[in-house]
Structures are given as C-alpha cells and as structure tokens.
Amino acid sequence: MATVSGNMVTIVGAGTTTITATQDGDANYNAAPEVGQLLTVNKASQTITFNALPDKSTADADFALTASSTSGLPVSYSSSDPGVATITPPNTLHIVGAGNTMITASQAGDDNYLPATPVDQNQFISNASLQNQTITFPAIADAVYGDAPVVLNASASSNLTVTYSSDNANVATVSGNTLVITGVGTATITASQAGDAAYNPAPDETQTFTVTPKELTITGVIANDKNYNGNTDATLDLSGASLVGVVGADDVTFSSTGASFVSANAGPNISVITNLVLGGADVANYTLAQSSVTASILPAPQVITFNPLPAANTNTTPIDLTTYASVNSPLALSFASSDDNVASVSGNVLTINGPGTAVITASQSGDANHAAATSVDQSITVTLAPSTVTWNFGTTVGAPFPSSGLPVNNLDVSAFQSGNDRNSANNGTLQFYTNSNSPTPAFSGLYNVGIAAYNVDFNPMSSAYFQFTITPDAGYQVTLTDLSFGSRSTSSGPTTLSIRTSADGFVSDIATLSPAANSNWSLYAPTLTPITTSSPLTVRIYGYVTGGTGTVGTTGSANWRMDDVTFEALVQAQAPCTGTPEAGSITANEANFCGSGVTDITATGFTDPASNPGVSLQWYSSTNNVDFAPVDGATGATLMTGLLTQTTYYYLQVSCAGSGLSDISNTQTIAVNAIPATPSISGANSVCTGNTTTLTSSAAPAGGSYAWFNNGNPIGETTQSINVGAGIYTVVITSDAGCVSTSSASHEVIELGAPAAPFVEGPRNVCQYVGTSEQVVYTVFPDPNVTSYNWVVPPTVNIISGQGTGTLTVTFSATFLNAANKQIRVTGTSACGQTPMTIKYLVAQIPSTPGAITGPNNVCDLIGTGATAIYSVPEIQGSTDYNWNLPAGVTLVNDNGNSIEVSFTNAFVSSVFTVSSGNLCGVSGLRSMTVNRISPSVPGPISGANNACIFMPTASNPSGTPTTFSVTRSSNVTSYNWVLPAGVNMIDQTQTATEDVITVQFTSGFSGGSVSVSASNNCGISGSRSLVISRLNPGTPSAIDVVNTQSCPNRTFTYSLSAVPSNTTDLVWTVPAGGTIVSGQGSASIEVSYADGPIAGNVTVTGSNGCASSATRSVAVKLAGCPPAPKQAVKISPAISGVEV
Asked: For the domain bounded by 585-673, which CATH number is listed?
C-alpha cells in the first residue's frame, strides 16, 4: 500500500496499512514505545477518451477501436446493434450490415482504480451497393423563452425530405420542420434522412442551441416611509403591483424576501432594495428585473418620561435626575431649574440649596435622526430639615434631660418622665440603671431608664409609660416627624408598646410595636404620621401585655427599660392669632356610669390651633364643680378621662397667645353612681305538691326595685317577698340611678309529692339463718323526704334494732320454717304524706342444682405429675355447703366450697365428677362432668425431602449438607419420638409455635429407609408416621451452548447448560490443554480463556451428588493460533488521511 523512506511515505497501491513510528533511544534515553497510525489509500478515479468514429460501408474491412483510459488499464467495447456491427476481442469492430449502432467503451477498474464512466460513439455503416447522401444543417440561433417558433432548413444532397427530432422536449419540440420553444435550457436537434431504394441513409447532423430565461418586470411597487429606528429594514406595498411579460397562462408569482434602505439614516427619497423574487410552477423560465423605488426615513419622535420628584428638605443629598427622567432614544437629556436658590442643576445632578419650590425642566433637542422632544416639567418642594433630639441618659446617674440636639430654636423640650410604675416605692420618679447586659445594638451613654410595668391588658390608668413634652414658643408651631428608641423587656415585661400623644388626649395609637420579652435590647423606629401643633405636645409610650395575667406585684423590679430615645421635629413660625378664639362645645361619648368608667369627651366648633397659629387648647376638671384644675397633657380636641370612680366635671379652654384672650366651653358632667350590694334570698327549700312557699330578698336601697328570675327567666315579680312553687330562683336589685346589682346566689325550691313505696334490700332465702341467732339486716333505699319508717314482721321474726329507721336488724326462730306468714312489711312517713306499703316475701327452701362444672376435661398432662387442677361451679344463693364426689385416682388437695383443687394418680381412668349444694332446708340435685384420659393421636404427615443423595457427602462437600424433617404439633402431646434409619444422624430437635423439627445429617453409609415419628403424653404413645427416603442419581447434563465472548489475543468463551440437572449437587467441568476455567466451576456456566496457540480437545461436564455421578456431556474444541499482535507505535499527529493511488 505504501513504502517509507526516511520520513517520506510513498503510495504504491489502494488499501489499508499501519505506519509505525519508533525511536531507539541513546545513551541518555530509553527506547520510546512504538506508536502506529492507520493509513487508508482510497482507489483512484479514471476517465475514458473515445473519439468519434468515421462512417463506414459494408464494403469496408474490420478496424481497430482506439479508446484509452487515464489509468492505463485496457478498455472493453460493446455494440448496441449486432446486426450492424459486432466486437471481436479485444478491440476490433466487425462490420455486419448497413445502419447505425452505438459503440460503448468501458473500463471496470481494479484493486487501485474505480470503474470509469462509459463513453458512447455512433458508428454509421452504409450499404456499398447504394449511393451515399449527406445532410446540410445550418446552425440554430440561441433563443429567449417566449420567442416565436423557428423554421428548420436542413437539406439532403439526395433532395430527399429531411426529418427532425429534439432530445429535450422540455426545451423545444419539433413538428414537421417547425421548432417550438417550450422552456429554458439546451436542446440538440437531429436532422435525419432514412434513404430510399437508391440512397443509403444519410449520416445524422445535429445542431445544439440554448434557450435563456425571459426577463420580467413588476409595475406598481411602492416603498413605505418609516420613522428612523437605526436599521435599514424597509416595507413594500405590493397591493397594486403586477408582473409584466409573462408568456401565455404560465404560473408565475412574485413576493419580497425583505426590502431594505441603502442607508439607515433619516433623509428623503432614499433608494430601497426591493429583493423581489419569483415563484410559481413556471418560474424556471423567467428572470426578474428589480424595481427601482425610493422612500423617506423620517426623524424618530422622542418622548420624555419624567416621574414626580420626591419630597426634599434642606438635608436631602443631591438627586440623580436620570433616576426619575428618561427619553425613548439614545440621546442624553438636559435639565434646568427655575430657581437655583431652591435647587440647582449640574449635568444630571440636582442639588438642594434652600427651602421653597422650583420647577425642573427635562428637554431633548433632537439630531439628524431624532425630532426634538416636548419638554416636561416636574416641581420639587424643599422644606426645612427637622431638628433631632436624643436622650441617652448620660454618663452619671440621674440625667433626665436630652443629651444631644439642644437647644432647638423656639422649642422647649422637657425632662424624660415615667408614669404608672407598678412598684409603689418609686413614687413616680424616673429610675436609672446601668447598661450591664451588653445591649445589642450598642447604645450610647452608661445608663438607661426602667420601670416596673403591670403585665395586663392596656388601661390608661394602670399601664406603665414613658413620656416627654415639646412646647413651641408663642407664635411657633412644631411638627413631630420621627421617633426611635431602644427597648428591652424581661419575661414579665411588656409585649406590646403603644405610642399616643396629647394631641387627641391620648385616645388613639399613632403606632404600635410588639417587642420580644426575652431581655434583649432592640432598636425600634415606628412609622409616624407627622403631627403639627402650636400647643404643648406630650408623646407617651405605653407598655403592657395583651391578655396578661397580672403577676407583677407592687414591689416588682424593673421589667421594661428604654435608652437612646430620639425624636425629629420641625419648628416653624406662625402668623399670630388675634381676638377671642371660640371654645365651641364639648360632648361625652358616655356621661353616666355605675361604679366606675372611662369615656372620651370631644370638642366641636372650636378655633383649631392647626390652622390658627398661637391658639392652644387646655382641658380642666373638678370633682366638686367648683375647684377646676388643668388636666396634665390634655391639649388636644379629645380628652380620654381615664378611670373615674366618682362624679367629675370638665370644660375646655381655648386661648390665643397673640391677643391674650381665651374662651371656655360648656361644662360636661360625668356621673359615677353606686352599684347596689348583691342581694341574698331567705325562705324554705321545699314545697309539697300544690302548695307555695315565701321567698324574701335582702332590702334594696331607697328608691330601688327588685326583679325575680326562675331558672334565669324573669317571672315579673318586683316586690321584696314573693310566693313561689318549685323552681330555682334568683333576684337582682336596681337603684334609682339605674345601676344593677350582681345576681343573688340561686335558691332552689323542690316539690315534694307523696313519697314512693320503699325498696327493701336483704336476703330472701333465709334457711341458713333459721334458729341460729345470726342477725340479718334489711334496709330501704334512702329517701331524704321520708322522716320515719314503720316495720311489721311475723311472730317468728325477732326485731333486734332499727324500728322507725331505714335499717332493720332481725333474727329468725326455729319455728319460722313451718310458719305461714313469711312477710316483712314497711311504710314511710314524710311532711307530704305516707308511702305505700312494701312487702318483702321470704322463703326457706333448698338451694338450686349447681351450674355447669368448669375445669380441664383431659388430664393426661396432670396424671402422675403432682400438678393440680381447679374445678368449680357458680356460687348458689342460700347454699351453705357443696358436696363433691370424686372417682378413684383423684386426690382432693383443697376444698373451697363451690371450687376444689385436685391432683391425679396413674390409677385414674376416664370418670365422672359430681357436685350438689345444700343448706338447713335440704340438698340440691347433682351436676356432673366427665373427665377424660386421652392418649395422643398419630402425628400428621412428615415434611422434608425424600431424596437423600443431594444431602450426602461428596468430594467437594465431605461432610454433606444438613436437612430438616418436621410435623405439626398437637395440643395433647408432650413430646415427639423420632426414629432414623442407619446412616442418618440427628443433630438437633427443636419446637416452634406450630411444629416439632429435627435436623439430620446423612452419611455415606446411608442406603435407604424411612424416617418415622410418634407422639406421647402421660396417657400413652401414639402410632407412628413414616416418610420413605430414596437414593436418586443425578441427571445427565443438557447440550453445551458455546459463545465466543472475546477474540484474540485474549480470547474467551462461555460454555453453558440450559439448567442444573435434576438431583445434582455438583457440576465438574474439564477443558483442553491451553484452556483455563476463569469462573463458574461447579455451576451451569463457565468462562474459559485460551492461550494464543492452537487449541484442540473437548470441554466436558459431569454432574454428581452424594450417591453417584451422571453421564458426561462434551463439546469439541478446535481453535487456530492467534495472529501476531501488531506493534504499538508512537503517536503520529496529525493522522494520515485517506489518499488515492
């Protein structure tokens, strides 16, 4: 395939060979591993040269054909018409007769060359006895599809008529001498003259011509204008367009594949490339001249989006205007401010300079591709920044005043205060503590403030709070804008913080928080709605526990602390008020209470401080309607009174600081009235049927009234005393002020009808008591309304005690047995009458026959063992003794009356036990039970293998394999006795819940026999159950299936049986010399590897068990030696590609 000289490879033939690279090493290097690369040499192609053949006549001699191939291989020939000419090998043409035949030159290729494409040449043989003629055929001019038909004008020298044919009817057809164009392409027209009686056929003459496509045009194409968008995409309007020049009814369509402008920039009358294409069934016959159209790209409109600017104050950092403004183009916006004193613009940055309002204008002037945008304005209002004040409670204890932020012009800030401290010892003073618990986040200062907060629901009178007050100077107003603070609650501390202000009398929350009661510090910054006032404003932070149980006592330690309390406020001058302000009127939400109450009082129609600078509000209160004092922190339009326990009077004073004048509202009275004490009811607790009793309530206060209820329902009685029947009664008292007491305790009156007949309990059969002096007790079921009982007994019965009570003790004389009167009679007496009489009928009779005897009926497990069994009957009323009759072989161990304990000796046989009961009146009938001595039955079938050979010793298992035999256990069996044949040894005997199981080992001496088993108990031994054990030889192995799993050099085969033969414990395989069993020896399939050399022999397999070996199955093996392995070569990179010879 190839030879190598140095590093040059020379191709010598087609095929595949390995080129190996080696390096033998030197004094410093070992020889390199050889590396090989596969070289594939493909067969070469070849062509045939076969020139046109000269015309011949039948008189001419044979001649040689001279075609040649580029491969140099010999060319073979064939004739299409043997009646005209034949081929005499290897290359001689033999003339046979006149006519035309096609001579084909072929070359079939060889190992290095592919077959050549055959070449045809026409051979004309004329009749030597006839005249020859020739055809003159002028050239045919090329045409365009759609041209008119052409008249052909070929002529024969014999003047005979010439005929025509076309080799491509898709391009042209011929009718007579008229050539009709049918499509685009090349066609060859052949002129022929067939000769006649005087002339040979003329040699054919051909003319080839080409038909080119016809060019079409499209009219009515319009290119659409567009706005600039940075690309050249264009659209066409073809709704009025049409094709010009289509031939006849040809199927031709047109469309655009995507028009485009020659330039992407805006401008008028820009040329558009239409990219029109033709389609339809006849499209191949046409070309298309592109339409020349123009359109305009208009400057793109710009739209500015300018969102509202945020509120700002004099502390606001510069604002990036591009965050709020944008334009729908890549051009940059420009900005301008209407008032640089408020805010100025540099580039895109807006800088705040002072309070006021400025208009910021965003604009974009456009460019060649973009129209100018309409400018957009946004206003920004700048306010003064608020002042910030903080309490961090200092570096020394007792610092209630702000630590930073003071002074604030025109604003007074109070000391920090606390209120409703649960620890009464603190007397309302602010308590200070060190930051010993390492608060996180770290707060400033060394101290914080704390309070003992009552852990109950919110109550303005008891919930702990911290507060501060800010007071604007006269003519100024203050706006509270922000509040933050650190807070820490212990496990008993507040879980809810409520922030309220004096602006509405501390009535409503302006924020609520839920701190964790885990003793950890947290920083809180609630969101507040700004509050503006010209009056003093007290901010109060309440702490409480929603749903709390109130476990914090009046000596409790601080469970709530605060630190770093910070507020922000804006102080602004107000135009001073003038004249006398209006106080309006005040109205309470609730003006009357019983015992205590809390209400809101709201003012209306007053001069509002929010819109009237210098106007302030102050509430006043009094408990005597004479001495009024200002309510602390009550400077809002609504006053929350707190808990009132006495009647209190309120009014609102509205003052103008500018004029020094004030006005007061009407006085609102909040009445607190006493609640009557809880009444009590006296009177009887029972009433006889049809009667009434009187109930009386404790006295009501002067002017008060009563309301009576039965089972919670009003009964319309309103006097202090009422007459009632049975029921459950309560009463409430209402004072003349409408205050209602709590309900009295219930007073139940029960109805007593005639008492029921007594129910007597005591023995009815008294045989065992007659004449014995033993006392017998009879009782009646208690009735609380019965006051006494009267007992009547027969003369033979003696009353020991209990007459008049519900318990009677008596004895029975010996004459009672024969007395006719055996009745005890009793009646009861109550306030509502006497009960009916109850009669207790007594008897003196023998006891009834005992019930069924219970106890074991098969006693084999007990016989001769000393173990005992219990036999018993149900206890019989009136029986004094039980008589048991026991058969021989039964020993009485214990006699317990209605039950006995016995044991059984070996002398016992199946017998009957009997028992009767008796008393002083006689003996009952007998009850019997048969007790059996039952021997065990024959055991059930034995489970286990009946072929010993698979368990007996083999060469590979010299000890053999243990196996088991078992029978199902029976309840009447104490043991199972197994008997084994010779050559079988018992290893173990065990019992499961359901089976008796033995494990055995078969020895090589076993020759056959049966395994048998019998059952035994204390009563005997059963018959035997047997299982015959056979010796079965192993089956012959099936045919061996062979599979070659790996070829040389590491050739491997698998040899397999369809299954392990029956009764087989071992399979022994042998392989011929040179083979090695890799795996599977002893199983139904082995894997064998063979050495490289020739292998001949047999693979055999023989089955065996402990009794014998099977016939041997074999399969012949004959393997040729493996070819030498190719040398490994160093890697040649890149690999040698396929080449041709």
From this structure: 2.60.40
Q: Answer yes or no: are the C-beta atoms of 1109 and 1135 closer than 8 Å.
A: no
Burial-class residue 10 by CB neighbours within 10 Å (0-12, 13-18, 19+): exposed
In this structure, are residues 236 and 208 in contact, taking their beta carbons and an 8 Å threshold?
A: no
Task: In whole angstroms, give the CA distance from residue 680 to residue 744.
Answer: 5
Q: Rounded to whole angstroms, how far apart are CA atoms 59 and 1123? A: 66
The span from the CA of 819 to the CA of 829, in Å, is: 30
**Which of 1.10.8.60, 3.40.50.11900, 2.60.40.1080, 3.30.460.10 would CATH assign to domain 48-126?**
2.60.40.1080
- Residues 191 and 522: their CA atoms lie apart, in Å, by 113
Q: How far apart are CA 1141 and CA 1130, in angstroms?
A: 26
- CATH 2.60.40.10 residue window(s) in the chain: 135-212, 304-383, 681-752
d(CA 739, CA 678): 12
- Tell me the CB-side half-sphere exposure of residue 968, using CA atoms within 13 A: 5
Q: Rg of the chain over CA atoms, in angstroms? A: 66
In the prediction, which pLDDT does 755 show?
85
Give the integer Cα–Cα distance in Å for 211 and 78.
35
Residue with tokens 């008049």: 804
Distance (Å, whole) CA 221 – CA 792: 138
The tokens for 771 are 């004449």
525 vs 566: CA distance, rounded Å: 9
Distance set, CA 695 to CA 705, 727, 744, 826 (Å): 16, 11, 13, 36
Residues of the chain with CATH 2.60.40.1080: 48-126
What CA–CA distance (Å, rounded) separates 186 from 213? 12
Cα–Cα distances (Å) from 856 to 158, 699, 850, 883, 886, in that order, read 145, 80, 18, 19, 14
AA letter at 786? V
Topology adopted by domain 681-752: Immunoglobulin-like (2.60.40)
561 phi and psi, to 5 degrees?
A: -130, 155
Contacts 24+ apart (CB under 8 A), 83-90: 84/123, 84/125, 85/123, 85/125, 88/62
DSSP 3-state assignment of 425?
Answer: helix
* CATH top-level class of 388-432+447-549+559-573: mainly beta
Q: Per-residue pLDDT tens for 871-917?
A: 999 998 778 889 999 999 999 999 999 999 999 998 899 899 999 99
* CATH code for the part of the protein at 943-1029: 2.60.40
Q: Exposed (0-12), middle (13-18) or buried (19+): which is 55, by Cβ within 10 Å?
A: middle
What's this model's pTM, rounded to 2 decimal places? 0.35
Tell me the C-alpha distance between 998 and 978, whole Å.
8
Query: Does the structure show a pLDDT above 90 at 383?
Result: no
Q: What is the predicted pLDDT for the residue at 1018?
A: 86
Cβ burial of 1000 (10 Å; 0-12, 13-18, 19+) is: buried
Residues of the chain with CATH 2.60.120: 388-432+447-549+559-573
How wide is the angle at C-alpha 345 spanned by C-alphas 343 and 347, nearest 5°?
160
Rounded to an integer, what distance in angstroms lies between the CA atom of residue 664 and that of residue 619?
9
Position 183 pLDDT exceeds 70: yes
Residues in contact with 794: Cβ distance below 8 Å, sequence separation at least 6, in sequence order = 816, 819, 821, 822, 823, 824
CA–CA distance, 342 with 355 (Å, rounded to integer): 6
The second-level CATH assignment, the architecture, of 304-383 is Sandwich (2.60)
Could you give the C-alpha distances from 811 to 133, 772, 779, 787, 808, in angstroms and in order?
A: 175, 8, 15, 25, 10
Q: Could you tell me which of 639, 530, 627, 633 has the C-alpha nearest to residue 588?
A: 639
Residue 120: DSSP 8-state:
E
| CB-based burial label for 554 (10 Å; 0-12, 13-18, 19+) | exposed
